[in-house]
Design brief:
With 136 residues, this protein is of the alpha+beta class. 15% of the residues lie in helices and 38% in strands. The chain has 3 helices and 12 strands. The strands form 2 sheets. Strands 4-5-6-7-12-11-10-9 form an 8-stranded antiparallel sheet. Strands 3-2-1-8 form a 4-stranded mixed sheet. The longest helix has 8 residues. It starts with a strand and ends in a 5-residue tail after the last strand.
């Protein structure tokens, strides 16, 4: 599954509606309001208020040991995916626009222009937020 920031995550493409995602991927395993959780594949599809998919969240923001991290097999064209190292992310994308520590032992690297954010634990990626909105 190829991650193309601002364009697609596998068959989930920018501008799709949740109904189009379901038509392409089948019903999600769970839902939280309008969020479609494809647990078996390790990602969630998030629409905006207008019903257009704008974000795909891959892996699990809380732990590298989550089954969602193992389930998500997508990678960017640069080869970045679950369990990629911090050094690999920096080599692929350079210095992030912003870094923070969402909780002890975790680090978030945000690349606003690219539409990507990574959460790392023990210097390894376990969550990727892919923004499908057009760049500003």
């Amino acid at each position: 599954m190829l991650i193309v920031p601002r364009v697609s995550v596998g068959k989930v493409k920018a501008g799709m509606t949740p109904a189009q995602v379901v038509a392409e991927l089948g019903e999600s395993q769970t839902k939280q309001g309008k969020i479609l959780n494809y647990v078996r594949s390790g990602f969630s599809v998030i629409p905006n208020r207008d019903g257009v998919v704008v974000v795909v969240m891959c892996g699990d923001p809380s732990s590298i040991d989550s089954p969602l991290v193992k389930a998500f097999t997508g990678r960017t064209a640069e080869g970045i995916g679950m369990r990629s190292t911090r050094d690999e992310v920096l080599k692929a994308y350079g210095k992030p626009d912003e870094t923070d520590t969402p909780e002890p032992g975790h680090e978030r690297l945000k690349y606003d222009d690219l539409g990507l954010a990574f959460i790392l634990q023990d210097l390894k990626v376990h969550h990727i937020t892919v923004n499908l909105r057009p760049a500003k």
